[in-house]
Design a protein that fits this description.
This protein is α/β, with parallel strands linked by helices. The chain has helices at residues 13-30, 48-56, 72-80, 100-110, 135-146, 218-226, 287-296, 317-330, 332-336, 383-395, 398-401, 439-443, 448-451, 477-493, 511-520, 525-530; strands at residues 63-64, 86-92, 116-123, 154-158, 173-174, 185-189, 194-195, 206-210, 233-237, 271-272, 278-281, 297-298, 304-307, 343-347, 350-353, 369-372, 405-410, 430-435, 457-463, 502-508, 532-536. The strands form 3 sheets. The protein has a 17-stranded mixed β-sheet. The chain has a two-stranded parallel sheet with strand order 5-7. Strands 10-12 form a two-stranded parallel ribbon. It is elongated.
Length: 540
């Protein structure tokens, strides 16, 4: 038997074309800034055969217009994709911003909306903070809304530099005069649009809205979402920071904000999404806006859920109650069946279950779940109230209160200590404090018998006092040992150690030294008689 060597040139044309198309798809996935030649140009420079195949394959040349020094490639791409579905990129701007050649290729793109498979609209240059020059953007949206785009699958309206929102007054009406039967992906970033009440986007699978909105209040949001019943992925990030402004500072602030009051006419979980696979409410988003969207959506409890919208500015009691009711309703199946996560982690402010260590039944629970403990900007003035209420909102859910193991980690950039704010975890057996969260031992562990009445193992892990934050006195191993001895004595004095079986130091600098100080401390004799002090992979 012999093995003959071969090269890609032995493949038939049909297979090479498939390779070409996958190469283009990968390049598109990485992102095309449209200011250079199209990615497929390199393929046409390899050999005569490859060039012939590339030039004849219209799907390779669909990404246009091109901009800057690559503007001449626009006409080349247009000719080589003469009948193919197009991937258009429109860089909008005022007449003073756009050079005549740039304006010409943008106009050429608008004339081909009917052939567009995907459309990206973004500013040619960065708008100012309040995006005052809205005419070109609005004109383009109006044109898109009134011209036929029957092939459109992906629409992105993106201003990546925007952190504020457009005024609601004059927001362009998207898709005012047409249906889009094949639209699968819609992304709004830094723009505000409005959508007709009668618009029904049953084909839409992915919706991404960041620093933008398509509604003014909860009822409009509900109506908007009901028009896309087959959504599979939804991402929503809205910055609530305008609530932190003084109304007297800027009379125009109301034009940039949404009404975040809960609906008075709709019940929670009134918008069904039977096909939803993932809901993301990322960090940096306002809790109130995120809570509104989550609370009125109904989807399977196994859906991947990232509820990390976590910033609080003003009164949030109504939204806290709304989210609490929606969360318990969402997880009602798991709660009824007595299912909960075995191991949970709180890393800085992010709460997640460790599903890889789950042993008890969990088929009614999502494998991918995260929450973020909410916080307030320092100048708002009630951080402890927000932190405590947020800890209660999430950690009091029965899907967490059945946990037997809790890992708490904090780094030096996180100034929050949460342990004292946690609600009771009645069956918790193992508490692991990592990195700078070990400061919790010194500050808040003395009353843990109320929070963790079944605690058996206290583990202090991944701690290097030479790299710690100012929360813990650094450097001296005797200082660290003294602090921990004093903390354990306080726990003993308050009766918090009655259920303890082990105190463990794992990957802990000077762990052996600290353990020896604990064992030799006369005031900890009662603790040492009942509790084993162990060291695992410690170092000096």
């Amino acid at each position: 038997m012999t093995i003959e060597t071969t090269t890609i040139d032995f493949l038939p044309n049909e297979v090479i074309l498939v390779v070409f198309l996958w190469t283009k798809a990968y390049a598109d996935l990485r992102g095309d800034d449209h200011f250079g030649p199209p990615s497929c140009v390199d393929l046409s420079h390899v050999s005569k055969r490859w060039r012939s195949l590339a030039l004849a394959c219209q799907e390779l040349w669909t990404n246009w217009p091109r901009y800057g020094a690559a503007i001449p490639w626009t006409e080349v791409c247009r000719e080589r994709s003469s009948t193919a579905s197009l991937d258009l990129c429109l860089l909008v701007g005022s007449e003073s911003e756009l050079e005549p050649p740039t304006a010409a290729v943008v106009q050429l793109a608008t004339e081909n909306f009917a052939r567009a498979r995907s459309i990206l609209i973004r500013p040619h240059s960065t708008f100012d903070h309040y995006m005052t020059d809205l005419g070109p953007f609005m004109q383009t949206i109006v044109q898109l809304s009134h011209e036929s785009a029957p092939l459109l699958e992906n629409l992105r309206l993106e201003n990546p530099d925007a952190t504020m929102h457009l005024p609601f007054i004059g927001a362009p009406l998207l898709f005012a005069a047409q249906e889009l039967p094949h639209l699968r992906q819609l992304s709004l970033r830094g723009y505000l649009v409005s959508v007709s009440d009668t618009m029904h986007m049953s084909s839409l699978c992915t919706l991404n809205i960041q620093f933008a909105s398509a509604w003014f209040n909860a009822d409009q949001m509900i109506q908007f979402l009901k028009g896309m019943p087959n959504l599979e992925e939804l991402t929503y990030l809205y910055d609530d920071s305008e609530e932190g402004y003084d109304d007297d500072d800027d009379d125009d602030d109301a034009l940039h904000s949404t009404d975040k009051a809960p609906s008075t006419t709709h019940s929670i979980r009134c918008v069904p999404f039977p096909r939803m696979k993932r809901l993301r409410l990322p960090r940096r988003g306002g809790f109130k806006s995120g809570a509104l969207l989550f609370s009125y959506c109904a989807f399977a409890p196994q859906t991947a859920l990232c509820f990390e919208a976590d910033t609080i500015y003003l009164d949030w009691d109504a939204h806290l109650e709304l989210a609490a009711n929606a969360l318990r309703d969402h997880f009602a199946g798991a709660i009824t069946q007595g299912q909960s996560y075995d191991v949970i982690t709180v890393n800085n402010r992010i709460i997640k279950p460790d599903i890889s260590r789950q042993t008890s039944p969990s088929h009614a629970l999502p494998a991918d779940l995260s929450f973020s403990i909410s916080h307030s900007p320092i100048d708002i003035g009630y951080p402890d109230t927000v932190l405590r209420s947020s800890c209660e909102l999430y950690l009091s859910l029965p899907i967490f209160t059945g946990a037997s193991e809790l890992h708490v980690a904090r780094d030096e950039h996180s100034c929050y200590g949460f342990l004292k704010l946690y609600p009771p975890l009645p069956v918790l057996r193992v508490l692991v404090l990592k990195r700078d969260a070990i400061a919790e031992v010194m500050n808040h562990l003395s009353n843990c018998s109320h929070q963790f009445p079944a605690l058996e193992v206290l583990r202090l892990a991944d701690f290097d006092c030479r790299a710690t934050a100012a929360l813990i006195r650094p450097n001296s191993r005797d200082t660290i040992a003294r602090d921990i001895v004093e903390a354990l004595y306080t726990c003993l004095h308050h009766g918090s150690t009655k259920t303890w079986r082990y105190v463990e130091f794992e990957r802990f600098r000077y762990g052996e030294h600290v353990a020896e100080k604990i064992r030799s401390e006369p005031e900890l004799q009662d603790l040492n008689e009942r509790v084993e002090i162990r060291c695992i992979d410690c170092y000096d």
